[in-house]
Specification:
mainly alpha; globular
């Protein structure tokens, strides 16, 4: 009995969830904790990609079908039925280039918004940084983007669109889209736990948002007097500049790109702090 009394206490780590608090200053501590779970983030991200195409005849081809199908529909409507300007490039590749990065953004947002409520059993039984779940959906959408980019490369060869050094700008432009998508994924997934209307509203919101972004039309079609307000939509700077550097070999419009980058950079810490505030009572509500 004395041996039992003198035994060392259990080394099991205990996580104490503190009361809700909105603090940007705690973000560094949360990020350091998140980095300790990098292997879980990687594992769940790979699982997310595998599950998406499991028992599917077409497999990863589904990542290509959505932007290609929309591109074909918009090409018929806006290049045959209604003549839409396309900045001197064939409308098919004009539309597909924008749809490529828009589909990444839309998929990341709509799927991650439902992420937490789809993992109720996991969240209520074991602790881990909850932000891992919406992040895995963003990563899975990024994988889909990489797969669908193969079609864009083929279209550039078919239409004799030469890549220039300006295409390297696509990397920071994609980074802006990634930061913006991550911020919204954190905010919407946490809000969805309390208000399930978020998931129901997302398809309509994303459809309206797409037409408020120069996806099927060029930025030049927007009247100049509305341009300043229009560019406050971060996806305007992302989509338009991605198309400029990839198709036209032109320098990005630094005003719209900087606006998108600033908004994304400001939103990410705010949305992360909001997510961690909700995290403390998430398991009780979900």
């Amino acid at each position: 009995m004395s041996a039992l009394v003198g035994a060392a206490p259990s080394s099991r780590r205990i996580k104490v969830l503190r009361p809700p608090s909105f603090s940007l200053l705690d973000s560094g501590r949360h990020i350091r904790q998140l980095l300790l779970y990098w292997d879980l983030l990687l594992t769940l991200s790979l699982h997310r990609v595998k599950v998406r195409y499991k028992q599917s005849m077409l497999g990863p081809v589904w990542a290509i079908l959505q932007p290609v199908s929309l591109m074909l529909i918009y090409t018929v409507i806006f290049s045959i039925v209604v003549r839409m300007p396309s900045d001197g490039t064939p409308y098919a590749i004009f539309a597909y280039t924008a749809l490529l990065i828009w589909t990444f953004f839309s998929t990341a947002i709509t799927t991650s918004a439902m992420g937490l409520v789809s993992h109720t059993q996991l969240i209520t039984k074991v602790y881990f940084p909850r932000e891992i779940i919406p992040l895995t959906y963003v990563i899975a959408a990024l994988v889909d983007l990489a797969i669908a980019s193969v079609v864009l490369a083929g279209m550039m060869i078919f239409y004799h669109v030469a890549a220039t050094p300006m295409i390297l700008w696509a990397i920071p432009i994609l980074a802006v889209a990634l930061v913006f998508a991550t911020a919204l994924a954190l905010m919407l997934s946490a809000t969805q736990v309390w208000f399930r209307d978020v998931g129901l509203a997302m398809p309509l919101v994303m459809q309206l948002w797409m037409f408020a972004t120069p996806v099927v039309y060029p930025l030049n079609s927007v009247p100049q007097r509305f341009r300043w307000w229009y560019v406050l939509n971060p996806m305007v700077g992302v989509v338009e500049n991605f198309r400029r550097v990839v198709l036209q070999g032109a320098r990005p419009d630094l005003h719209s790109l900087a606006t998108a980058a600033i908004i994304a950079a400001v939103l990410l810490p705010i949305c992360y702090a909001y997510f961690k505030q909700m995290d403390s009572t998430m398991a009780d509500v979900i």
